[in-house]
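ok so i was messing around last nite and threw this chain in just to see what happens. nothing serious, just curious
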Amino acid sequence: MGGTGGRYSGARSDKVLEQINQEKQKERERLDGQVDDLIRELLARYNDRDTEKVSERLDTIRENLGEAADLDTILFGGSVAKHTAVDGLSDVDALVILDKQSIGADSPQDLIDSFHRLLSQSLPRSDIESVSKGRLAVTVTYQDGQEIQLLPALRSRNTVRIAASDGRTWQDTKPRGFQSALTRENRRMNQSLVPAIKLTKSVFADFPPQKQLRSYHIETLAVDAAKNYKGPKNPKALLLQILEHSSRRVLRPIADVTGQSRTADEYLGSANSDQRRNISQTLEGTVRRLMAATTIAQWRAVLDRVRG
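result:
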């Protein structure tokens, strides 16, 4: 009798355990579906930014500069070109390659001064608030608050020459280098890397200022995270991969493949600086929160920071 009861009790326990596991699996699948819906919602919101207006304004700049100088080309230099822009998180900027003979620039400061003068004189002022000159670039601010930052450059053999960070010397750069790397990795990731970068920028949007990363730095870390990645190729999985990889990789300087700077993260200081360690710890905590999340509210608390 005791033996029979033991076998019956064991079988019943196994069945209960199986039912519990089945319910847990259903809960995981339900949460995965809810997270996928949230990600689609957020990406739709990010993609709804006014790219048509940006393109129209860049076309206007191109046309008006073309009348005042021999304009070589405008290459989108920022997040618009890479399709990783998130409204409020990424600068809209363009690299403007000018003809040296027409612009009359013998030094970086000459180039910036001449370019600022050309823009001020040639752009229609009906919807422009200001045209301001910085150390490296010129910013056009529109009356609706949108800013377009324009970096003047000269063609130099196989590279593009811009003002170096000191504003006094030249820096040779290859602006298409990173864009090509991102395009290649995004294709290999079934076009999911770019959406994952947008989600990553949304996560960083809620970090305090001292733990923020610049837009291009986030993109560089994301491409680095994708290089040897073998897991699922969807935005959710890649987001977790980028955050986890970045929590380690941010501790060391990462090269700037465009050549515009020696590294993409000089602003964080040397390897293992206090700022790098603080950012690393915050990223580690974020990954733990997402991995341990059991409700969609917990996922939304991390991701849903950029309001349309």
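not much to say yet. DSSP finds eleven helices and seven strands in the chain.
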